[in-house]
Amino acid sequence: MCGIFGLFSKDKKIDGKEILEKIGLEMLNHRGPDGFGYYSSSNVFLAHWRLAIIDLKGGSQPMNNKEDTISIVFNGEIYNFQELRKELESRGHEFRTQSDTEVIIHAYEEWDRECVSRFRGMFAFAIWDSRKNCLFLARDRLGIKPLFYAIHNNIIYFASEMKAILAQSQIPKDINFDAIAWYFSLGYIPAPFTIYKNIQKLPAGYTLKIDKTCKQLNKYWDVQYSPNNSKSSVQFWDEFKELFRESVALRMISDVPIGAFLSGGIDSGIVVAFMSLLSSKPIRTFTIGFGGEIGGYFDERALAKTVSQRYGTKHFEYVVYPKLSDIIGKIVNAFDEPFADDSVIPSYYLSKKTREQVAVSLSGLGGDETFGGYERYLGFKLSNYYKLLPFFFRENVIRKMIEMVPERADGHYTINHLKRFVRGTSYSPFEIYYEFISMVNNRKNLDIFKDSELMKVHFKNVLESLKTMYETAPADDPLDKVFYMDLKTYLTDDVLALTDRMSMQHSLEVRVPFIDHKIIEFCATIPNHYKIRFFSKKYLLRQGAKEFLPPQVLNHRKQGFSSPMSQWIKFDLRSYFDELLSENALKISGIFDPRRVRTILDEHYSRREINDRLIWAIVIFQEWYKQYMLG
Asked: Which helix (H) or strand (E) holds 210?
């Protein structure tokens, strides 16, 4: 894993020394502390911070081809590089290193931009082709690795993190108000948007080719949801096992020590089970727990230890205490834009603890998106049956009763999910989904903004964009459309973005065997009734995992590495949040209505409504504004 940065000027000479001074040698050092290199010519600059994982001696970058006509900076891993190398050698290519980076160079020479379709892995790379005088950028199919770019005054800038682009003083930092609406709708900003008007994310599964005359953005991968109803659940499970075994084995290829994140859930447990079966040595596993007054309910250390004992892993634990003031600035700095998933807190500490022992860790991320593990999927499916009840009874009896029930004292979301369910199920299928995922929209919480009428326009843009995505999703079944949307937005721009930034803050590479494009494509053929059956989520995975995991893990309610933010706000950190969201504090950005924000807090404290996501989103936005707009 590495950090990359560069630029290509279409019509001006560039000063490599001046660029180096702006980015500084330490700018992305956390992404690659093992080495720094750069390439500079009259109109191109490439920089690379290396985290050495494969070919420790020969994999330094930027790397050139034999003729020095092609240069590359690359972040990620190509898991099938050995197989591709053999094919390329048979076609006459000669290799000088054992690295996967050199395989990309020769693959580009052989197949040009179509080379990306042959890679199995996670990647973001930039190739400078002096023969064609063009820059070629590429990002992996699922967006496991990030890539940002900006075009300003005929110069294209790109980087693994926006801070390297923002270091170029000529790049304007104007705020994109559509992005603010995306952020307060979803808790994150999906590609191609960023919080800045002039910087974009290269979407997952896309390439970008730029020369002096044109810009070509090309989509090279997508997934089609086509359920195969001719197979039994046993057939699906047997095929999945073989694919997953291969995926885990590929991700265990490393020239440095490797481990695994282990929560008390099925997904990480399955990963550890397969790693243990494939390894002759004990696997190192890492888990997180919570201290403070209320951490216990969210603490899965006992379940993780059960799996560890079953597979004889060398197990490490770490306890997180509610001291957000120590890390909130670091979290914001890792993203360079507002990002409101509070799982960043345990992920930050888990990555820190894991890096003390290994340089690479496997994770169970992606199991929920591929097998139907989220509550909203169950709610979406059950809404079809709930709608069979008379409208009057739903709205005037059931909904009124549910709205009167206080949120659970232990901070769990059971009542909150019921409230969201009864509020949304009278809408269209897309609107039901939107109601489940959004914190703010044109029907709820819009009055947190001082100028709510202005923000209506931007939230309408978000709604229309998501609706178009839903309607054009390559799927017939409404639930498959929802799976597709989460794959393209939530998985890439929340789950994977979080994992990348928090792990790379500590120079840790995280690999995700569930998020292999072959597995994604295969799981898109599994019918929904094998994913969600009655009230059981992840039915097929749960049934198949019985041969690998103990009953207490299989039957435990999903938690994963989430934080007890709801309880922290009410108890351990109440005074801290009161201070951060006081009327004076909210003047920093000037966009929020202090009275409405106070109401949001009071609703949360009194258990009338769980507002932890929205409260945390406002806090993070304020901290971002202070660091990046006023700093």
From this structure: strand 206-210
Residue 1's pLDDT is what?
Answer: 67
Catalytic residues, by residue number, are 2
Angle at 522 between CA 492 and CA 310, to 5 degrees: 80
* Token representation of residue 12: 């001006």
For 14, the 3-state DSSP assignment is coil
Task: For 2-219, give the CATH class.
Answer: alpha beta
What are the residue boundaries of the structural domains of the chain, listed by start? 2-219, 233-372+489-563, 375-482, 568-631
pLDDT digits (tens, 9 = 90+) for 451-510: 999 999 999 999 999 999 999 999 999 999 999 999 999 999 999 999 999 999 999 999
Q: Among residues 472, 474, 486, 478, which one has the least CA distance to residue 223?
A: 474
CA distances from 572 to 446, 567, 619, 625 (A): 28, 8, 16, 25
Specify the DSSP element, H or E, that contains 47: strand 44-50
- Are 232 and 278 a contacting pair, CB within 8 Å? no
The pLDDT, as a whole number, for residue 423 is 78
> For residue 206, what are its two tokens?
């896309």
Predicted structure pTM score: 0.95
- Out of 3.40.50.620, 3.20.20.140, 3.90.550.10, 2.130.10.10, select the CATH number for domain 233-372+489-563: 3.40.50.620
pLDDT in tens, 388-409: 788 777 777 778 787 787 877 7
H/E stretch holding 2 reads strand 2-9
